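thread: overnight batch results

M.L. [08:02]
morning all. the overnight job finished for the chain we discussed friday. pasting input first so we're all looking at the same thing
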Amino acid sequence: MYSEDELLPISALQHLEFCPRQWALMYLENVWDENELTAQGRIMHELVDRPSREWQGDIFVARSLRLRSLRLGLTGIADVVEFHPVTPDGGSDRGIALPGLDGLWRPYPVEYKRGRPKLSACDEVQLCAQALSLEEMLKASVPLGAFFYGQPRRRHEVIFDSTLRLKTEALALRLHSLTMTGTTPEAEYTRKCRSCSIYEWCRPKSIGRKKSARRYLELICLSDKYSEEQEP
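M.L. [08:03]
and the structure it wrote out:
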């Protein structure tokens, strides 16, 4: 169990799974820059990240719900958590009681993302961490959740199976370990670098796995010195 002071952002899991170097530059070195893609994502979240409670049919909806998991050492805010009514024939999943509401309810986290579903599991581990936090906080079962992606404008449901849960728990451990060591991984250029907002800070083509930052700076100094010597 972690203490309150040791809690790390749930959102950091998404960045760590997507690219460990991006995570380190953002969360260890406080490097950030915005591009068109991140601006679209920020605007989308500004529209939904307004604390509120409302009914949508027979579903109770809570927006901007604060989450935490002392077991995983994580904290964050869920865009939306829907509470679906559990029918009497719901089987072993009997749901939970909610203050002021009759019946039993099953939590269902929904995360808003711009763009489309990704090939990697970076989004899924973030949503799964929200589900694990809800289970710990509410003593509830959270088997399913969903993303609402901006471009197809439809939901993409996620099953929180044992494989995804174990992956999320392992990534949370790695997140704490890397945070303690404070180490920024080496740069490695891949196709996903093209859309990264901190590409110019990372410089994956100039400082790649087989290229040291020291050697890169030495080459710049030598180039500047050569240019000065060639001046009339």
